[in-house]
Structure formats: structure tokens, C-alpha cells
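Need residues for this backbone.
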């Protein structure tokens, strides 16, 4: 893989949960700080959480306390556990290094939160 590959999105009702996954090749994943980004329709892409190689984490105010980022370095995989989802979380979610590298953007995975 020459870029990140996201999966796990879907439709969920407000208050529901989803778990996103993001896979990459070891040469991308190893030693990298990686973030989850999202882009809502008509808005700029924003960083909502990121994790260091040693699993220190940081979150935007909008997701703090509801979402959890984690990584499995042996599997070169990043995760995003999203709980208590809100309609304003509707977006396409991407992973990339932090700071992001343009060549590594994948297709993203779409999350829709509505009743």
C-alpha cells in the first residue's frame, strides 16, 4: 500500500457508535504520528484526533470524551472508536500522518449520523 486505506464507516442514528480502521504499509506507519481527519460537506478538512508512535493522544474539543484513537503497531493499523455520535459528526473520515502528506490521502470512509 502506498497510502492509507480507511474502512468502517456507515449510517448510524444519533447516540450510536462506529469503529473506524485505517491500514497502511509498514514504511508509512513505522515511527509516524498519525491522525484522524474529517471533512464535512462544504467544509475544510480538519484534524480531530492524533496519536504518537508511543500512543500519546490528543483530541479536538468537538470529539473529546466521545471518540478514542488507538493503534496496533504490529498490524500497521489505526483505529477510531466513536461513541455518542451526533449529526455534526457526519463527514468523510481520513487518516494521514501529522502533519499530513498529500500523497498519502486515501479515499476515506463516510460516516452519516441521522435519524
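Answer:
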Amino acid at each position: 500500500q502506498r497510502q492509507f486505506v480507511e474502512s468502517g464507516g456507515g449510517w448510524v442514528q444519533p447516540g450510536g457508535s462506529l469503529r473506524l480502521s485505517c491500514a497502511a504499509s509498514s514504511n508509512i506507519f513505522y515511527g509516524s504520528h498519525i491522525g484522524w481527519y474529517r471533512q464535512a460537506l462544504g467544509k475544510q478538512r480538519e484534524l480531530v484526533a492524533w496519536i504518537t508512535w508511543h500512543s500519546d493522544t490528543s483530541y479536538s474539543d468537538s470529539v473529546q470524551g466521545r471518540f478514542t484513537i488507538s493503534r496496533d503497531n504490529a498490524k500497521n493499523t489505526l483505529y477510531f472508536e466513536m461513541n455518542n455520535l451526533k449529526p455534526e459528526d457526519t463527514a468523510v473520515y481520513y487518516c494521514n500522518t501529522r502533519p499530513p502528506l498529500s500523497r498519502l490521502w486515501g479515499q476515506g470512509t463516510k460516516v452519516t449520523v441521522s435519524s
